[in-house]
Amino acid sequence: NNIVPGEYKYRLLLLKAGSREQEFSGSVQLLVSGEQDGEQVSVSVPETKGGKGPGLPVLFKYYQRLEGSFRLPAGMKPKSIQVRVYEAGAAQPKWTRTTNL
Fold first, then answer.
1. The dihedral formed by the CA atoms of 9, 1, 64 and 87, expressed in degrees to the nearest 10
2. Are 59 and 16 in contact (CB under 8 A)?
3. Half-sphere CA count of 86, side-chain side, radius 13 A
4. Sign of CA dihedral 87, 8, 32, 11
5. Full-model pTM
6. Inter-residue contact 59 to 14 (CB < 8 Å)
7. Cα–Cα distances in Å, from 29 out to 18, 19, 60?
8. DSSP alpha helices (H): ranges in the chain?
9. CB under 8 Å to 31, separation ≥6 — which residues?
């Protein structure tokens, strides 16, 4: 793998808790927060307008793995990443998890 400045890789494992009778249908969005030129900035992955809009689609009954990469703007220093899991049709995330980098 070639390392590209500003490029980051991610790996997620989503597990469905509770009843597994029905499939979970929705999307996942990553929100990377940090600093750029002394300012606080956030970047959504995949890129959306104002952090809203479709994320990475998911459909699973028991679990689903997600892997990928994204590139941050030049000079951005990431401080944290938030994983947001949305159920299909929901405006608010069903689950969030923030990790400091």
1. 30
2. no
3. 16
4. positive
5. 0.84
6. no
7. 22, 23, 16
8. none
9. 42, 43, 44, 45, 51, 81, 82, 84
Tokens 């070639």, located at residue: 2
| C-alpha angle 99-7-2 in degrees, rounded to nearest 5 | 130
Q: Which residues contact 63 (CB under 8 A, 6 or more apart)?
A: 13, 14, 15, 16
Question: 67 is written with which tokens?
Answer: 């892997």
Distance from C-alpha of 15 to C-alpha of 66, rounded to nearest angstrom:
11
CB 80 within 8 A of CB 101: yes
CA 37 to chain centre: 24
Among 2-6, 20-24, 35-39, 67-71, the minimum mean pLDDT is found in 2-6
